Amino acid sequence: MNSPLKQHLIDPEICIRCYTCEMTCPIGAIQHDDNNVVVDPEICNHCMDCIPVCPTGSIDEWRVVNTPYSLDEQYAWEELPEQQELATTSPEEDEVDASVARLLAEAHAGAGGKSKPPASAAKPVINLYNLGKPVTLTVQGNYRLTRDPDHDVRHIILETNGLPFPVLEGQSVGIIPPGADGDGNAHLPRLYSVSSPRDGERPGYHNISLTVKREGQGIASNYLCDLEKGADVQVTGPFGATFLMPNDPDARILMICTGTGSAPMRAFTMQRQRAGGGEMAAMTMFFGARTPESLPYFGPLKKVPEGVLQQHLVFSRLPDQPKEYVQDRMLSRAEAVADILRDPGAYIYVCGLKEMESGVEKALTTIAESTGQPWSALRDTMRDEGRFHVETY
Amino acid sequence: MLDLINVSYDTQIPNNVGLSEDRKVLKALEKWHPGYINWWNDLIPQNFQDSMVYLRTAVSVDPKGWAKFDYVKMPEYRWGVLLAPAVEDRKIPMGEHYGEPAWQEVPGEYRNMLKRLIVIQGDTEPGSVEQQRFLGLTAPSLYDMRNLFQVNVEEGRHLWAMVYLLQKYFGKDGREEADDMLVRSSGSEEAPRMLGAFNEETPDWLSFFMFTYFTDRDGKMQLESLAQSGFDPLSRTCRFMLTEEAHHMFVGETGVGRTIQATLDAMNANGITDPYNVGKIRDLGVIDLPTIQKKLNLHYTLSLDLFGQEVSTNAANAFNSGIKGRYMEQRIDDDHKLQNDTYAVTSIKDGQILTEDVPALTAINMRLRDDYVRDASGGVGRWNKLIAKSGIEFALKLPHEGFHRQIGVFSSVAVDPDGNIISAEDWAKRQHEWLPTKDDGAFVQSLMKPCFEPGKYASWIAPPKVGIDNKPGDYEYVKLHMA
């Protein structure tokens, strides 16, 4: 039986056959003939040593396959094959995938229909690791983000130990807490949205970060928040093929979030900054929390230039101030939001607690109507075009 | 404890060789440094010196993080001395000392031979920067300008690498040789660079691309063979230089490829199918394929000359003494001593070109040249794929190895690109068909108009398929200083 695996490949159209990768590979996984440079799937252990030395960018290519492309196939290529749609074969995997799919479907339900990815989104890799075959990642750091004793939110960085773990902004990973539940069954993975961009928390290192809030008796969140540097964590994923950002630099992005719902928004923002920052279309964020002390990333956010991200940080528990929620601020900035709703190339992302949905929905309804469009119709159009995304829990 | 992976900045010269604890060499290098900076400053036009260029700098020799990209002014580029990590218990991989531990110090009996090889290698590095000094002014895009400067600063670093070896291991002679590197100058009457190809002009960008494709590839082959050296510091230096050299191959192959692509696109857009309809094609502001073939002929043959005599006792000695190996020596399946082997070498007997077997030891140059030809033909094949894809009937080819040669057995005869020996008279009559003429040069020169708007490219060259460091198409690779 074959379980899908990720195969490292080289793009023959971009490669110039300098063989620097071949010389660099510490275990001799790369070889060439007069036509192509190829990677032996039997040998390659994804150590990534060959990636930075490549002068062309042809080497950072990966396909998830049931059966790896053989050396002969790779030698014969004139161009790289597309990623094939994969069907899983094991019933056990199907079941796990089904449970993850159900969790994601619930989280995306607020979009009011079947979500689609942005047309210009990068193609995500999904289900690379599953319950039968999780990957072990190592904690590189665990930092407290909030100064509010009732809101312990952590920024947890996981190192991939050289193993492939390609995530796009907006994707989630499954964390398997150790131990078993009351019936003696191993815990199922809990989903967490990744808060780092695609090339890693540290650029080029492909490490990933999570934003985790400690929940009273939550098994996974307490496990994660208590992790120490150097600890190993069992992880599945990546998951999610729709809540993704557009690569199109001209696409405006509106982000509405509360609490740890900021995780994907942080990833989006970092990716845009790394990809070109001020030369891209503006992003707008409405971010709600109780107080500045309980708003994750409050400090770092202040450093993001206005030209990259227009920020509306909204607080519901400021002393001597009336409660303000994201929907309130959206309404008080209705003209700015309306301008985005009118733009046929704009994208909207909502992420946070389920409770925020109805307020946000109402605000969007009011603002959309002020532009002469019924929100339900606009929402369906945007969703079908991959421009409206909701992930709430 | 010495950190041999990450680069130390505790001296003026970034290095991973513990310079701060090596006072004598540090002093020598610091003395050499101002002359180098002067050389650089006199060379590159001032407004480029003041521009911010998106360059990669080697910050570590560990493959995972070996270079970082950022905006730098070229004179502030951190040229440094970087050696690839030592291989534990490394053995001499060839020659009569095969299997003995690699030398960490210069073996006395090979001192002069080693020094000469290092000086020749070192001399080529500043030579190419000198040849390319004015190209920035006519860059077809900021992307290309950035690539040019990247090549330039890395050639500068390669000079540093060779100068370090000279100063560290060759005492007073070494210091004098290091100083002479900054005295000789490309194309100079009184003190030219040591090798012919590095005294030729690089008058335009197509020449630059051909140079980086063909001539830097000779450099790559030489570095590959020096990376086999039993003298371990030389081996480690060259291994690290090769990682950088790969970028130069990239600039060459994609530069020629993009030039061809622009020509093909313009021909197709205007319904021209005959590649020899030169006048009409040139009117479109692109370079016709026959002219590209002529440029290829020129640079390929100048580069073949760099391999020296086909049969050479110097090369045999260098191999036998374990100083310089063959291309990919460790992958060759033989005894690595070549005492009883033969190798087929071309020669001329009675006006005929033929091959004869000679002792393999004496044919080391020929073998490296054969490896080079194979390596160089790969890119030509890929260029031809572009042409075939466009539906235009034309194929570039490498001329016969005897064509237009100044060094080796063919230097005494005239040979056409197909390998026929022809009379000197025929050669004089026909060479304009095979090598760029003054008119060809003037035409290419007429296209060399700068294009400095981010994301825009001159008419004669197509945009690249992928940006440097995965940057988007309109990335401002050079922030030009406007005086």
Please describe what this structure looks like.
The complex is a heterodimer of chains A (393) and B (483). Chain A is an alpha/beta fold and 393 residues long. Chain A has three domains: 5-76, Alpha-Beta Plaits, CATH 3.30.70.20; 91-108 and 121-239, Elongation Factor Tu (Ef-tu), domain 3 (Beta Barrel); 253-392, Nucleotide-binding domain of ferredoxin-NADP reductase (FNR) module (Rossmann fold, 3-Layer(aba) Sandwich), CATH 3.40.50. Chain A is built from eleven helices and 15 strands. A six-stranded antiparallel sheet of chain A has the order 8-7-10-5-6-9. In chain A, helix 7 (298-302) links the parallel strand 12 (283-289) and strand 13. In chain A, helix 8 crosses helix 9 (334-342), helix 8 packs parallel to helix 10 (356-370) and helix 9 (334-342) crosses helix 10. The model of chain A has no long low-confidence stretch (mean pLDDT 88). Chain B contains 13 helices and seven strands. The radius of gyration of chain B is 23 Å and the shape is globular. In chain B, helix 3 packs parallel to helix 5 (171-181), helix 4 (142-169) packs antiparallel against helix 5 and helix 7 (232-269) runs parallel beside helix 11 (364-390). Chain B has one domain (19-479): Orthogonal Bundle (Ribonucleotide Reductase, subunit A), CATH 1.10.620. The N and C termini of chain B lie far apart (47 Å). Chain B is mainly alpha-helical and 483 residues long. In chain B, strands 2-1-7 form a three-stranded antiparallel sheet. Classes of the chains: A alpha/beta (393), B mainly alpha (483). The interface between A and B is medium-sized, with 26 and 28 residues.
